[in-house]
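Researcher: I'd like a candidate sequence for this fold, 239 residues long. If you have to choose between options at a position, lean toward the conservative one.
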């Protein structure tokens, strides 16, 4: 197979999704039998990460023959994410805690990581469950000014039971009566949510955010998606 037979498809993820196709011809070639290395550079602006797919020309219908992903570790699309990653490269520790894999104090590490994630999503957050801070409070409050609302968050390492849903809903309603602005109850867990679990939560007007949505929110924050887009993942409601 020759270089002219290959085609590189590039998908860049940022505020918008960009798609490019590049030929490998014209790049610097270095032969390392049985391999050939080609140096080819191009600029893609305003992206946080890219997916690369290598195709054989005229054979695209059979799918790609190789795939790679790359992260722009110096991306400044979202300054909140960029600032965090100066001290936590690639958000490695944050993502570890969001998966419930902290080496110690998993409960509070998970709560703190969720509060940090919501901050990256453009919300103003308060972690209320720090030991000795409050009594009978939700774990997290997250405030948004446009639209004006408050996320009332509870974190759990296990699948929540009915009592947890009821308690969270009551706290959200209590806060809404006091503030007279919309509140949304959200249950966070590092466990992947089934459709049955999500439906159970909705019975109590609670949104369920499991491991898959936590990862999706971090990806969206990295790509500097709008807060309204991320509120949809959190609450299931459009603005």
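Model: Candidate sequence:
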């Amino acid at each position: 197979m020759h270089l002219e037979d290959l085609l590189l498809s590039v998908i860049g993820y940022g505020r918008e999704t960009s798609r490019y196709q590049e030929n490998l011809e014209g790049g610097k070639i270095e032969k390392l039998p049985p391999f050939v290395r080609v140096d080819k550079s191009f600029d893609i602006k305003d992206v946080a990460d890219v997916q690369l797919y290598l195709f054989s020309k005229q054979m695209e219908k059979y799918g790609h023959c190789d795939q790679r992903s790359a992260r722009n570790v110096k991306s400044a699309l979202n300054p909140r994410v960029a600032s965090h990653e100066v001290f936590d490269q690639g958000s490695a520790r944050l993502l570890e805690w969001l998966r419930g894999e902290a080496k110690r104090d998993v409960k509070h590490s998970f709560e703190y990581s969720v509060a940090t994630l919501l901050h990256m999503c453009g919300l103003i957050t308060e972690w209320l469950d720090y030991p000795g801070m409050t009594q009978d409070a939700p774990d997290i409050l997250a405030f948004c000014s446009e639209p004006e609302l408050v996320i009332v968050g509870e974190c759990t390492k296990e699948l929540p039971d009915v009592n947890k849903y009821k308690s969270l809903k009551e706290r959200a309603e209590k806060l809404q009566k006091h503030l007279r602005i919309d509140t949304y109850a959200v249950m966070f867990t590092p466990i992947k949510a089934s459709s049955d679990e999500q439906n159970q939560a909705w019975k109590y007007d609670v949104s369920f955010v499991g491991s898959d949505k936590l990862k999706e929110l971090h990806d969206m924050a990295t790509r500097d998606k709008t807060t309204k887009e991320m509120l949809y993942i959190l609450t299931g409601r459009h603005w």
